[in-house]
Amino acid sequence: MKQYDIVIVGAGPVGCVMAERCASQLGWKVLLIDKRDHIAGNCYDCLHQSGVLIHQYGPHYFRTNNQSLVDYLSAFTEWIPGNYYVTSFAKNQYFPFPINLLTLAQFFEKEKLSPDEAKRLLEEVREKIDQPANSEEFVLSRVGRAMYETFYLGYTLKQWDMHPRDLSPSVCGRIPVRFNEDCRYVDHTHQLTPKHGFTELFRQMIKHELIDLHLGTPYNKELHKASTTVYTGPIDEYFDYCYGNLPWRSLAFDFKEYPQEFVQKNVQINYPNDYDYTRSVEIKHVTKQAHPHTVVSYEYPRAEGDPYYPIPTADNHNLYEKYRLLAEEETSKNNVYFCGRLAEYKYFNTDEVIENALRTFDLIKQKNDHQ
Predict the structure, then answer these.
(1) H helices of the chain, where?
(2) The pairing of beta strand 93-97 with beta strand 228-231
């Protein structure tokens, strides 16, 4: 094998950022490998057979409050506005989601609610649980049983195949309750999408003479050697599952083409209580692509398949901690850095995972500077 300064395992967001930084900032020769036949990881977008751009592995809504992150990525893409609107279909109605003043007024059949009125209403209906021990208690303590059973219970059962009482409070804790009429899915300062797609953003990122990209290439510890390694794959796989498998939830997607410009009124509709799928996504609302047809993806949670979501239970956290200690030792002894969702058994949004990659690069750079 050619001599490389660093081997990066996985050409998703983490791998592409690490490759770009090591090549452009350190002048290192980089080998970037991925067992899939494409870059961009789960951010991968491509043209459907209809010619409509789709997000192959589920929707990615880029948002951040970090101006420096936008500045960094802007070297590789132009942007278009990405205000994302999600509704939840329940009781034969479409409710704005996450819950805001309009959701509360619609649900409780009020003409209008002020922030103070909404807070008083939730105080009346919520269950008084001071220290929620699980996702069920967390939601009950915020919005009460009626909204919990309408918006959260069925969705969680489908998504995780587990009852909310068996999941960490953090699962539903990611979903805010807002006391305004902002119906956007998120309220970050920057809500953008790459003008030509995520795949093109990452393709531009790794267009560097010092980066060699090998796709369709599983990682081989004996073959793919360098003085530094960044590993973004499953951490249990790296250590040959010595403590057992870390459990994941997977997804299956059904992409349906329609001979019309749009089918849905907004990009994503959640189905907590109807159908086998959890949500339908018409990403064309975000990409702003001009095309006479559209494609809607229907998302089905699965127990088997590619790893998407770490399952946040106490037992799984404890199992990951055992692997994390092995990873710390491997970093110290052999300069192998573990970074990203699969390697850290943690759910990251796109902005978070890129920030995490930049932090990991800083660690590598600092170590290199002191040698």
Answers:
(1) 13-26, 67-73, 101-107, 115-125, 135-147, 153-160, 170-173, 198-205, 235-238, 284-287, 314-334, 341-344, 350-369
(2) unpaired
Residue 235, Cβ density class (10 Å: 0-12 exposed, 13-18 middle, ≥19 buried): buried
Tokens read off for 248: 């994941």
The encoded tokens of residue 152 equal 């959260």
- Poorest-pLDDT segment among 184-188, 238-242, 268-272, 275-279: 184-188
Coil, helix or strand at residue 272: coil
Compute how many other C-beta atoms are within 10 angstroms of the C-beta atom of residue 30: 26
- pTM comes to 0.95
Q: What is the pLDDT of residues 90-147, one digit of tens each?
A: 999 999 999 999 999 999 999 999 999 999 999 999 999 999 999 999 999 999 999 9
| Residue 345 burial (CB count, 10 A) | 25
The DSSP symbol for 247 reads: P
Q: How far apart are CA 4 and CA 40, in angstroms?
A: 22
Pairing between β-strand 63-64 and β-strand 190-194 as defined by DSSP bridges:
antiparallel
- pLDDT tens column, 80-106: 999 899 999 999 999 999 999 999 999
CA 201 to the chain's CA centroid: 17
Return the amino acid letter for 182.
D
Task: Report whether 262 contacts 294 (CB < 8 A).
Answer: yes
Q: What is the DSSP letter of 7?
A: E
Query: Which tokens hold the place of 137?
Result: 């208690």
Question: Whole-angstrom Cα distance, residue 31 to residue 27?
Answer: 13
Yes or no: say if 273 and 282 are a contact pair by the CB < 8 Å rule: no
Give yes or no for a contact between 355 and 69, defined as CB atoms under 8 angstroms apart.
Answer: yes
Q: Which two tokens stand for residue 336?
A: 């192998």
Residue 173 pLDDT > 90, yes or no?
Answer: no
User: Is the pLDDT confidence value at 341 over 90?
Assistant: yes
What was the pLDDT predicted at 1? 62
Whole-angstrom Cα distance, residue 306 to residue 323? Answer: 20
Residue 272 has pLDDT above 80, yes or no: yes
Pairing of strands 294-302, 248-258: antiparallel
